[in-house]
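Budget justification aside, the reviewers requested a transparent look at the raw inputs and outputs of the sequence design task funded under Objective 1. We therefore reproduce one unedited record. The lines immediately below are the structure tokens for a 146-residue chain.
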């Protein structure tokens, strides 16, 4: 896959402007406008307009949450297989101890640093995604995200 720029901790979040800004903005403006229109009188139609506006906002969030949940499950499987291959014998039995947020954060670590970083995460009980990602020295980009 062609890379436009190097991915790092600072720029690894994925924002799709047409979705995150335009679609959400339109849905939010619509919802607020429907609430404002209630001042003209509460009717069945005005209540339905507010409910539809709210439904669009909720739909926006679920349309993003559902694929991210599936992506997290795939990452969990991928990382468990990778850890099974890369961790020293004494750490392999601890693979089930990793939480999904820990595994998601560790996926950016290169193979050479993953065993030591995995040990730190378990021994220090690190759960904050950002703090785990900040410890990565050899960032492995992930451009195939939902």
């Amino acid at each position: 896959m062609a890379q436009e720029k190097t991915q790092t901790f600072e720029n690894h979040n994925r924002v799709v402007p047409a979705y995150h800004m335009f679609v959400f903005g339109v849905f939010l403006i619509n919802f607020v406008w429907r609430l404002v229109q209630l001042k003209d009188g509460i009717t069945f139609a005005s209540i339905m307009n507010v409910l539809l506006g709210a439904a669009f906002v909720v739909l926006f969030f679920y349309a993003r949450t559902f694929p991210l949940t599936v992506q997290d499950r795939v990452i969990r499987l991928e990382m468990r297989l990778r850890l099974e291959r890369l961790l020293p014998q004494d750490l392999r039995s601890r693979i089930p101890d990793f939480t999904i947020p820990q595994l998601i954060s560790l996926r950016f670590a290169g193979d050479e640093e993953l065993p030591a970083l995995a040990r730190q995460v378990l021994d220090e009980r690190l759960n904050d995604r950002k703090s785990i990602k900040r410890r990565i020295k050899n960032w492995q980009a992930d451009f195939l995200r939902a």
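The radius of gyration is 21 Å. The chain has two domains: 15-70, 87-141. Computational costs for records of this kind are itemized in the attached budget.
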